[in-house]
Amino acid sequence: MGEALAIIIAFATLLGISWGVTCAAVWAICSLMHWTFTWAVGTAAWIALLLIGSFGSSKK
User: What is the mean pLDDT of each run of 10 residues along the chain (60 residues)?
Assistant: First the structure.
């Protein structure tokens, strides 16, 4: 009975670790994608504003 319990505990520990690693990896990828997307949108907005500004000033 003790051996079965030890196997169950070991299995549960391994499962918990693998789940933790998987969740951490997914969270890291999601946050990285979010920041990359935010950075890209911000950069695009700045470029658009600069282009509009330069276009507007050259029109005068």
Answer: 91 93 93 93 95 80
Q: Give the model's pLDDT for residue 1.
A: 76
Q: Measured between alpha carbons, how far is 32 from 47 in angstroms, rounded to an integer?
A: 22
> HSE (CB half, 13 Å, CA atoms) of 41?
6
SS (H, E, C) 1-60: CHHHHHHHHHHHHHHHHHHHHHHHHHHHHHHHHHHHHHHHHHHHHHHHHHHHHHHHHHHC
Identity at 5, one-letter amino acid code: L
